[in-house]
Amino acid sequence: MFVRTSPFDTYTPSTQHLDEDPPLLEDLGINPQHIKEKTISVLAWKRVDSRLLEDPDMAGPLLFAIIFGLLLMLAGKLHFGAIYGFGMLGSLGIYTVMNLMSQEKEIDLYRTISILGYSLLPIVVLSAVGVVLSLKSAVGAVLSICCILWSTMTASRFFEVLLEMKNQRWLIAYPVCLLYGCFTLLTVF
Q1: Sign of dihedral through CA atoms 50, 56, 61, 63?
Q2: pLDDT of residue 19
Q3: With 0-12 CB in 10 A as exposed, 13-18 as middle and 19+ as buried, what is 80?
Q4: How far apart are CA 76 and CA 60, in angstroms?
């Protein structure tokens, strides 16, 4: 908003509307409290509230994907394109499968990407371990399998709560496990 005092003056910005503007994070639709609660629910195996899953956000998953790529780069592996490709194609596939399986509710692609991105966090932790230790050993194989199962159980639990698919949790877990297996292969090799 500009204030003009005369037709020959230049425009000067008005600062009276600055007090009425919301904070930048709120204006961008980023809720740090929800990101923190979803992250804690992934790391601590806490039961997630369905209201958190109704609020899809991309800030957390985008942050985790960038950290994942940077940690892989520190380990000497440049896989940003593969992370993006597996993430997008996997999300489209999981989105399609979830909507075909769900009879009660329907999920949109944005929520699917958000859930899969938050559940990627154990594999991000695995990639941090991979910076320090070699994952091409028996210990690395055990850690990899544990992280795949952790990510799979978290994502399938989120989908189960959101889509009200209590009897189909193992059917949900299978394609999700395959997707996280691809991310783990990027981490190990």
Answers
A1: negative
A2: 65
A3: middle
A4: 24
Rounded CA gap, 88 and 33, in Å? 26
C-alpha 66/C-alpha 88 separation (Å) is 14
Helices (H) and strands (E) in the chain, counts: 9, 2
In DSSP terms, 3 is beta-bridged to 12
Q: Calculate helix-pair angle for 138-163, 109-118, nearest 10 degrees.
A: 140
- Angle among Cα 85, 89, 93 to the nearest 5 degrees reads 165
Q: From CA 189, how far away is CA 40, in angstroms rounded?
A: 28
**Which H helix or E strand runs over 61?**
helix 59-74
List pLDDT tens digits, range 16-71.
666 677 777 777 778 888 899 999 999 988 777 788 888 888 999 999 999 999 99
**pLDDT class of 7 with cuts at 50, 70, 90:** low
